[in-house]
Design brief:
Layout lengths: L10 E2 L9 E2 L7 E2 L2 E2 H5 L1 E4 H6 L20 H19 L3 E5 H4 L6 H22 L2 E6 L18 H21 L3 E4 L5 E2 L7 H22 L4 E4 L9 E2 L4 H10 L6 E6 H6 L4 H10 L3 E5 L18 H13 L9 E3 L10 H27 L2 H9 L6 H8 L4 H8 L12 H14 L1
Parallel strand pairs: 1-2, 5-6, 5-14, 6-7, 7-8, 8-10, 10-12, 12-13, 13-14
Antiparallel strand pairs: 3-4, 9-11
Helix pairs in contact: 3-5, 5-6, 6-7, 10-11, 11-12
Length: 438
C-alpha cells in the first residue's frame, strides 16, 4: 500500500459513472480537433501544493495527514519524490512542476543546499526514466527565505541579487538535466511595499538585467526550455511588477525581452488583478505570448489567492476556447494544477479526488470549446457585430485608406446611425446550452 492507499490508476468511465475514482469526461485517448485530450491538456501536478503543503492558513496550523511527514530532512525529501511519482501514476498525468526549495531542504550554506538539490534531482531523474514522466517546468523559490524580504532581482541589496542569481543558475542547470520543457519566473517579492523608500526605476532595470543574464546563461549551457513569466498583482507585496499580462508584456517589450519569454497565466492571479481568466489568456494570445497555464480558481468572496481546484465549467470552457484559438494550443506548456485541497480536506485520498475534479473540468471545457469552434458560435456573433467594417467607410478604415478628412466628409453626410443589440443575454444562454449538451 502506498501513500495514497491502495488506489488503482484512474480510468475513464464516462459521464454516467458514479465511481468517485473514475474520470467522467477526461478520456486521454479521445481525439478532439485532431489531437487527443492528453496532447491538448498536458496535465501537471504541482509539487508545492500536493507534497509540501500542510493545510496551514494565516489563522491556523497544518491539518493534512500525509504519510511522508513521518520523515524529516533529506529522508522527507526522498519520500516526497516517491509520493509524487505514485500520484502521477494514479492520475495518468504526464508532467509535474516544482520550486527548487520544494524538493530539497536548504542547508547552512549555499554549497550544502546545492548538494541537497543535486542528490534529490538525481533521484527524480531515476524516477522519470523508470516511469516516462516529464518535468513541465521548474523554478526557483526566491520569496520564502527571509533573505528575500526586500525582493530578489528587485532587492535593494546587491548581495541578495548575487545570491538570487546563483540560485537561478543552479535551477537552470537542473532544468536542463531533467529535460524541463519550460522554466518559470514568478516574482513573489518582486515589487514594492511603499513608494516612499523605493527606487522603482533601478528595481525595474535590475529585474531586466537579471532576466537577460538568465537568457544568456541558458544559451551558454544549451538549455532550450521555453522561458515563462507568471503575472500576479499582489501578495505578498503591495504591488508586484508583473501585475497582469498587459503590464508584463509592456515590461518585456520595453527591455527587449519579449522574443525570449511567454506568459504562464494563472486563473486566480487573473481575478486578483480584477480580470477574468479568459481575459488574461486573450491578452497573452493576441501578443503571441500564451505559453502555459496554472489551473485553479479563486473564491471571489475572498480577497486573496485561495488556489482552489478548478471546477467552474464556464471558466474552463472559456479558457479552453482561448487555448484552442492559440497557435499550436499550449505548445510546450501545459495545464498545471497550482491548486490545493481545502484545509478541511485532510486525507490523502482528497488529493486524488481534487485532481480528478480538475482534470474532468478541463476535459469538459475542451469538449465544449471545440464544439463552439466547430459551430462558429462566437465567430458568427463577431462577424455580424462588426459587419460595418467590411464594406464602405468601414473597409476604408481597416485597410488604412481613411483619414480624418475622408471620415469628416462621410460624417457630414449626416446619415442616421442605426445600432443593433449586442444580445449578451442570448449569447450567454447559447453558451449554457453548449455546456449542458455539447
Amino acid at each position: 500500500m502506498g501513500y495514497f492507499g491502495d488506489v488503482k490508476p484512474i480510468q475513464y468511465e464516462g459521464r454516467e459513472s458514479t465511481n468517485p475514482l473514475a474520470f467522467k469526461f477526461y478520456n486521454p485517448d479521445q481525439v478532439v480537433l485532431g489531437k487527443t485530450m492528453r496532447e491538448h491538456l498536458r496535465f501537471a501536478v504541482a509539487y508545492w501544493h500536493s507534497f509540501t503543503g500542510s493545510g496551514t492558513d494565516p489563522f491556523g496550523a497544518g491539518t493534512a495527514i500525509r504519510g511522508w511527514d513521518a520523515y524529516s530532512g533529506m529522508d522527507l525529501a526522498k519520500a516526497r519524490v516517491e509520493a509524487c511519482f505514485e500520484l502521477l501514476n494514479i492520475l495518468g498525468a504526464d508532467f509535474f512542476c516544482f520550486h527548487d526549495r520544494d524538493i530539497a531542504p536548504e542547508g547552512d550554506t549555499l554549497q550544502e543546499t546545492n548538494r541537497n538539490l543535486d542528490e534529490i534531482v538525481a533521484l527524480i531523474k531515476e524516477n522519470m526514466k523508470a516511469t516516462g514522466k516529464k518535468l513541465l517546468w521548474n523554478t526557483a523559490n526566491m520569496f520564502t527565505n527571509p533573505r528575500f524580504l526586500h525582493g530578489a532581482a528587485t532587492t535593494n541589496h546587491a548581495d541578495v541579487f548575487a545570491y538570487a542569481a546563483a540560485q537561478v543558475k543552479k535551477a537552470l542547470e537542473h532544468g536542463k538535466e531533467l529535460g524541463a520543457e519550460n522554466y518559470v519566473f514568478w516574482g513573489g517579492r518582486e515589487g514594492y511595499e511603499s513608494l516612499l523608500n523605493t527606487d522603482m526605476g533601478l528595481e525595474l532595470d535590475n529585474l531586466a538585467r537579471f532576466l537577460h543574464m538568465a537568457v544568456d546563461y541558458a544559451k551558454e549551457i544549451g538549455f532550450d526550455a521555453q522561458f515563462l513569466i507568471e503575472p500576479k498583482p499582489k501578495e505578498p507585496t503591495k504591488h508586484q511588477y508583473d501585475f497582469d499580462a498587459a503590464t508584463t508584456l509592456s515590461f518585456l517589450r520595453k527591455y527587449g525581452l519579449l522574443p525570449h519569454f511567454k506568459l504562464n497565466i494563472e486563473a486566480n492571479h487573473a481575478t486578483l488583478a480584477g480580470h477574468t481568466f479568459e481575459h488574461e489568456l486573450r491578452v497573452a494570445r493576441l501578443d503571441g505570448a500564451l505559453g502555459s497555464i496554472d489551473a485553479n480558481q479563486g473564491d471571489l468572496l475572498l480577497g486573496w489567492d485561495t488556489d482552489e481546484f478548478p471546477t467552474d465549467l464556464y471558466s474552463t470552457t472559456l479558457a479552453m476556447y482561448e487555448i484552442l484559438q492559440n497557435e499550436g494550443g499550449l505548445g510546450r506548456g501545459g495545464v498545471n494544477f497550482d491548486a490545493k485541497v481545502r484545509r478541511t480536506s485532510l486525507e490523502p485520498i482528497d488529493v486524488v479526488y481534487a485532481h480528478i475534479a480538475g482534470m474532468d473540468s478541463f476535459a469538459r471545457g475542451l469538449q465544449v470549446a471545440a464544439k463552439l469552434i466547430e459551430d462558429r458560435v462566437f465567430e458568427n456573433v463577431l462577424e455580424n457585430r462588426y459587419a460595418t467594417f467590411r464594406t464602405g467607410i468601414g473597409a476604408d478604415i481597416v485597410s488604412g485608406k481613411a483619414n480624418f478628412h475622408t471620415l469628416e466628409a462621410y460624417a457630414l453626410q449626416n446619415k442616421p446611425i442605426v445600432h443593433e443589440s449586442g444580445r449578451v443575454e442570448l449569447i450567454r444562454s447559447v453558451l449554457n446550452q453548449y455546456i449542458l449538451n455539447a
